Amino acid sequence: MGLTGSRPADLPTLPAHTDPGTERIMDSGLLHELSHAFDGPFHFLLPHRFDANLAAFRAALDDAGVAGHVYYAKKANKAAVWAERCAAHGAGVDVASVPELRAALGHGVRGEHIVVTGPAKNDALLRLAVLHGCLVAVDALDELDLLTTLALTGTVRPARLLLRRLPPAQPHSRFGMTAGEADTALDRCVRAGDAVRMEGFSFHLSGYATRPRADLAAQLVDACLRARELGLRADRISIGGGFAVDYSSGGHWHAFLAAQRPEHYHAHKAFDADGFYPYHSPVAGADALRTVLGTVPDGGRTTLAARLKETGTLLLAEPGRALLDGAGASVFRVQGVKERDGYHVLTVDGTSLSLSEQWFNSEYLPDPYLVTRDGRARGDAAHPACVGGATCLESDLLTWRKVPFPARPRVGDLLVYPNTAGYQMDSNESPFHGLPLPPKVVVDRPDAARPRWRLDRATAR
After folding, report:
1. What is the C-alpha separation between 73 and 22, in angstroms, rounded?
2. Closest CA to 385 of 403, 399, 406
3. What pLDDT, on the 0 to 100 scale, is given for residue 153?
4. Which CATH class is domain 8-46+327-460?
5. What torsion, rounded to 10 degrees, do the Cα atoms 100, 106, 107, 108 define?
6. Which of 106, 115, 132, 319 yields a CA-CA distance of 20 to 30 A from 277?
């Protein structure tokens, strides 16, 4: 007999925005077949959502009349399909390691469409970048010297680079150069002559606020103008990523924050609400880019978009999570159910390593779906349950929160965590206990009566 001691209103919930493709897959019966085939957890990916998000970012540039490029930040998800979609659409990829660069090239992305970021890049990464004509975001003076040396010895093309600036509003950031260091870098670029092609500036800015991005971008436009006076190309700026994703409605999010208390979590786990990702953002994704472009920067007279057009400056953006919004979900099979103090403790066949917020002492808050063999569980009942992983660690919980499921979870049921493609599903995965990494399944036709699927090529290798 299931536990139903709490009414739905007693426990906070955070329903994710509905996604028709994900819902069709959950109702198709495919997930139980895949769970049986893989005998473990897996992720499914929806490339059509990536395509739509990419198109939205490009439309934001076009509608503002701004020339620019969109680069997918590859660190957000390791699947090969995203680089393949970038290659198919002529988009770029942002990489920060030799394996990431090789993967992007191997999946069809042209070198000139790749930007290489990350701190303190080694000579192997820089050499490969120069050979393939990639754009390098130079983070420090010694990195500039190494890049220049590589370009002067053994290559037939100049090293393409941006100079990354330290944000004045975030002076303790470990990324970027101070104003004085940037002046020195400009001088070295001039003296390097044809060995380097200094194409502009970039920055890494923490957080999701739009105004600081517009303000700093405008400052870098002015820096480009000064660099051009020195004879450098300096015709573009990169504002990086930091475009929020809106997982849930504002009403649900604010109600959740107001209601949640330690007693709503297993073992009275207490979370700092300020440490949660902002699962609702009123300005998210491509709309955040539109807002940045439409902002009048501090001290300016026109919008950032107008300033870019007036000065002939291109804008580069490197979204990761925002391009993956709605583009995948994670599936775990229930393999154990305990009753404990008025709620269930579930054990699933994977670990919280595949839902990375736990490893940042936080929680992935969008409600998981319970999918039985008859389809999604529905109803007004509340069967509260937390969700533990299959390891010997007390702290291995995918969900500490007591989620009020509409039916009693049973062994063999599936839990589907929605919208996990961006940073959630593979950022921290590890074959702990010898458990294999969950495979990734690409669903090419989620709208079909019988969805078509294939293994992602990175998984299939």
Report:
1. 23
2. 403
3. 87
4. mainly beta
5. 120
6. 115
Tokens (6 digits) for 28: 């198709």
Q: Is the pLDDT assigned to residue 270 strictly greater than 60? A: yes
Domain with CATH 2.40.37.10 in the chain: 8-46+327-460
Its pTM stands at: 0.95
Confidence of residue 5 (pLDDT cuts 50, 70, 90): very low
Q: Return the pLDDT at 8.
A: 44
Residues with Cβ within 8 Å of 61's Cβ and at least 6 positions away in sequence, in order, are 67, 68, 70, 289, 293, 315
- Cα–Cα dist 280/247, whole Å: 6
Bridge partners of residue 369, in order along the sequence? 416
Which of 38-47, 380-389, 442-451 has the weakest average pLDDT? 442-451
Looking only at the bridges linking them, the beta strands covering 236-238 and 196-203 are parallel
CATH of the domain spanning 48-246+281-324: 3.20.20.10
404/419 Cα distance (integer angstroms): 19
Q: Would you state the pLDDT for residue 156?
A: 74
In the chain, list all ranges with CATH 3.20.20.10. Answer: 48-246+281-324
Within 8 A by CB and 6+ apart from 392, the residues are 433
Mean residue pLDDT of the chain comes to 94
Is the dihedral angle over the CA atoms 416, 417, 418, 422 positive or is it negative?
negative
DSSP state of 158: P
